[in-house]
Amino acid sequence: MRARVVRAALALGLTAPLLTGCFEEPSPHEAVRDFLVGWQTGDYAAAARRADGDQAAVRKALEDARLQLDAASVRFSLKGISQDGEAAQAAYHAEVDLGENNPLWQYDGTLPLHLAGGQWKVRWSPSVIHPDLHAGQRLAVATVPKGRRPILDRAGDPLQDETMLHVAGVTPAEVKDPAHLCEQLSKITGFAQDRLLSRILSSPPQDFVPLATFGRTKFAQLKSKLEAIGGLRFEIDNAPVAPKSPTQIVGVVTAITPEAEQRLGGPQRAGDTLGRDGLQKAYQDQLTGSTETRVVILDNATGRQVKELKAWPGRENEPVRTTIDSRLQSAGDAAVAGSRPAALVAVKASTGEVLAVSTNQLHQERDALAGRYAAGTAFSIVVAEGLLRSGLDPKQKVPCSADRTVGGARFQQPGVDGVTVPSFQTDFAQGCVTALASLARRINGQAISRSAQQFGIGSGWKLPLRTFSGSVPAAQGDAAVAKIIAGQGAKVSPLAMALVAGAVKSGTWRPPTLVTSPAAPDPAVGEAGGSAAVTPATLDPAVTAKLRTLMRAGVTSGAAALATAPGEPVYGVAAQVTQAEKKERTRLSWFVGWQGDVALAVLVESGDLQAAPAVAGGFFRGAQPQT
Length: 627
Hints:
- The protein is 33% helix and 27% strand.
- By secondary structure, the chain is an alpha+beta fold.
């Protein structure tokens, strides 16, 4: 309510000088000034004193016009006055602010005047308010909200089911005491009484006017109190708002609350539902559009429309089309099911499109897309690109020992007795920490950073939801480089690692895509904004071919063997790492790889190295096309 008062005061400050010039009787100027200033500021009694009609009737007509328009402010500018003896006519321009989220209505009107008892008076009739308004008629604002559009998967199927919403509203013509009704409804719901009342008074009398929307649980709690309000009616809206998997990516829709109403601008809002999180929140405006608004003249007796004075079509709403593959999403959900926290992200290797985001006891957005996890030797994919580019031969013998010190930093490899001398390919496939760390002098921190950039680690890509592209600490000296090679220090999200796998498979790193239309929200919104303009990066074909060989060995003879599945060959690496956060230590199992054009990253909170590869194998088997 405070914003409406301030706006009216500002409007007066801008226009009053136009109305307070050197007005001197016996000209009509003073009458015009007093009438328009009184009307503009809400001093209807002052305006009525300058009219020749019944003052109470004039005062009520002007007040009713403002209520019927639910106007936040009315501003006038004087266009000119013509006088012919004892008659005159003033031309004015009106600007009516129809309220938050509604347009500015402008029109031109006239004030006929005449001398009565030595004073100039406005010759009163309803046409003073608007040239087309006559006796027995009223103004009204007709709004046509649009139903919320769905969020769709890549096949165009909705990612939500219909759910029952209860809409409480009124037909204004049937309400005997709208002020009392709004007072009661406000006490129960918390919605502002004056906004509820203005919505009723400004609507066509025969239209159903929705005032509040409730979900099933909330309606059940308030049903008896709501039904006790005389004149309040209820309608059912079967809205497509119950999210299917991935539920946290799709997001939850709730009935609009008093707090949201105040933030968004009042009851005249496109739809009565609000996205609380996920894509439903990020694309609230696109999914709901904006309300169609019409200023009309109605017949008081019948409530029928006599004339439309102005119409604003509003902004069309549209569905949000995602890249989610519902079949692969189901396979992911089945694969992560169990007792251990897990996250799985699948992307289309050739495009970067997000195909599935599945979690168990973790959050799909906060953890799978935006989690910050220690990468362990899964990060060896990134470092291996730099090592191979520097000339390292995958067949070169690199000792794998139980314990090794590099530059003063100590590294240990569980399960190894003594020292073996396998090839780098075998060290990579088995994830031998000591062997990888020993290569610190073959690559420097600058080269590691370049490789990380090639794979999008730490770059500015974003989705319409929160994401984390990864981070790699600056490395100076053998110990720091060795730690990064061994996966100690680099932080990544499952999404970032799925994109790394996709880059090795396709030969080109691509930023992720989750929504194909409409255009992403404004990046100025923050992390829940639009995708940053990050271009794909083409990898060295010769180096990429060697990386594929290394990752195939990770499945055929390495630690990722449990990811094997029927169909095309599976490529990948497995890793295990301990993450310390706020004095809590968590063991993580990783799998990063692909089958066909589906690149995958799996994270499982488990001390078992094989936990993530086993989930990956379950996903690949479940993702096989049904015959």
